[in-house]
Amino acid sequence: MKYPLPHTGTFAALLLFCGSVQAETLQTGKDVEAPTAKWDGVALGFEPPSPGLLGDMLGIRPILEESGFHYNLGYLSQLSYNAGGGYDQDKQASYIDQFSLTFSQDLQALTGIPDAALEGNIVNRNHDNNLTRDRLQDPRANPTDLSQESYGGQSITRLGWLTFSRSFLDRRLQWRIGMMNKVQDFDQIIPCDFQTLALCGGKSANSLTWYNWNVHYWGTTLQYKLTDGLTFKTGVMEQNPNATSRGHAWSTTTQGSKGFLLPMELELKTNAVNQLPGVYNIGVLFTNARQQDLYEGVSGGAGATDPNGYRSHNRTWFLYSGFNQQVTRHRGDASRGLSLFYSLGLADQRTNYMHYSTSTGIRYHGLFDARPDDWLGLGVSMVKLSDHYRDNQRYLNQINQATDYQDPNYRPVPGHSVTAELFYRFNVTPWLQLQPGLQYWHHPAGVSETQDAWVTALKTVVTF
Q1: Which ranges of 183-323 would DSSP assign to H, the alpha helix?
Q2: Degrees to nearest 5, angle at CA 363 with 360 and 364
Q3: DSSP letters spanning 305-369
Q4: Comparing C-alpha atoms, which of 244, 130, 248, 263 is closest to residue 197?
Q5: Are 303 and 313 in contact (CB under 8 A)?
Q6: Which of 14, 11, 48, 55 is nearest to 464 (CA)?
Q7: What is the pLDDT of residues 10-66, one digit of tens each?
Q8: What is the distance between the alpha carbons of residues 189 and 200, in angstroms, rounded to a whole number?
Q9: For residue 22, which phi and psi values (nearest 5 degrees)?
Q10: CA-CA distance, 213 to 244, in Å (whole number)?
Q11: Residues in Cβ contact with 60 at an 8 Å cutoff, skipping those fewer than 6 apart
Q12: pTM, 2 dp
């Protein structure tokens, strides 16, 4: 059983936003023109770049930028401590960290191809310390959340993406091709600033058929601006379960691919609500890669005892949607204020053990005048487990004659899980952020027999 891969993290969400703006600036040689410039996502969690710890790198950064090479280098750590409750109540502090390099190279001056760019991402992750796995949840159940969203299961350096992109039709159409990742194009309306996975970004990664941030797979995508604020996105990518393996970290092959992914998304950026910025999306992801049913067998009964094994499906789907809307200004400052977010993921429960997942919450940028750059966040998420998954667990208990939860052969029958998180992020300097947080876990992994848990957390972000 594999953990769902983590979302991008606070720093990564920042890089993606800044990178898209940088790329557009590079392509035109000037600042982004209205009406795009009128849409300002700062109060939604998409902050502009700030000076890094190393400044201009003794003059190296300005020279590189003059040559069209832009980069962001950052460090992220996440610490979680089980303050009470959970499956295993022995105390443990779990720590993980990562270094990430995201870069783009303008190719127009070098090749003459208009609006052409190379984009790349390299991530080094460290430590196999997972508080959710080790303390919070019953190890016999599949996870529904992670206390440390950037947990990747291993210490490893990986290529996240390396792609070529350019635009057409007066920059209304953007094309990308190469070893890519979904976060370059899809489901990027909610930043990943919370430390729990279910509150980190959108829900499309819960499809369990494509992966976030530091995992690459071959594909090509198109984005077309139907209007100045409405964009249609689509593409074709390989569906490769081996993409998360250590052997695939720098692989350029498609070995292990089972089929293809076809995503389609509509994204709307608007100032329609009280002239405040908001972003909305709805998307669907299809795959023709064969997926195993969680309960049914080939003959129509339970797959666990079917001589021909579990049934498989040659097409499955995943629907996702959400919004992120600023609702107040702070003392007339549009970059400060309260924003609301909501996200939803709905899966084919025949093959995905998380039938649906949803989250909602608030962010407040600059709540205190003495600290205008700090952030406050509060969110709640819920995951409802698949009926097929539950039926299979019940049937395994039946054939194993396991009725006692304490029996090692017993398979927990999960229902739903709820996770809540409160954080306050101190922008100590332009290059250092400290984010203490408090998490509450209700029915970890959806298992009602597991005691609710309290977790204290600390996220640290350094921009170089």
Answers
A1: none
A2: 155
A3: G-TT-EEEES-EEEEEEEEEEE---BTTBTTSEEEEEEEEEEE-TTT-SEEEEEEEEEEEE--BT
A4: 130
A5: no
A6: 55
A7: 334 444 434 443 334 333 333 333 344 489 999 999 998 889 999 998 899 999 999
A8: 11
A9: -60, -45
A10: 11
A11: none
A12: 0.90
For the four alpha carbons of 209, 210, 212 and 217, in that order, the dihedral sign comes to positive
- Alpha-carbon torsion, ordered 344, 350, 354, 357, to 10 deg: 10
CB 352 within 8 A of CB 316: yes
CA–CA separation, 101 and 361 (whole Å): 30
State mean pLDDT over 207-230: 96
DSSP-assigned states of every residue in 83-139: EE-SSS-S--EEEEEEEEEEEEEE-HHHH--TT-EEEEEEEEEE----HIIIIIS-T
Structure tokens, 74: 């950052």
Residue whose C-alpha is closest to residue 125's, from 80, 155, 100, 149: 155
Which amino acid appears at position 419 of this protein? T
Q: How confident is the model at residue 114 (pLDDT cuts 50, 70, 90)?
A: confident
Asked if 293 and 350 count as a contact pair (C-beta separation under 8 A), the reply is: yes
User: How far apart, in whole angstroms, are the C-alpha atoms of residue 379 and residue 182?
Assistant: 24
At CB < 8 A and 24+ separation, what contacts does 305-312 make?
Answer: 305/399
- Phi, psi values for residue 94, rounded to 5°: -105, 130
Let me know how long the chain is: 464
Provide CB contacts within 8 A for 118, sequence distance 6+: 104, 105, 107, 162, 163, 164
Q: Which amino acid is at 94?
A: S
Tokens of 100: 């990430």
**Distances in Å between the alpha carbon of 135 and those of 146, 247, 280, 318, 358?**
11, 29, 36, 30, 24
Which residues fall within 8 angstroms of residue 57, CB to CB, at 6 or more apart?
none
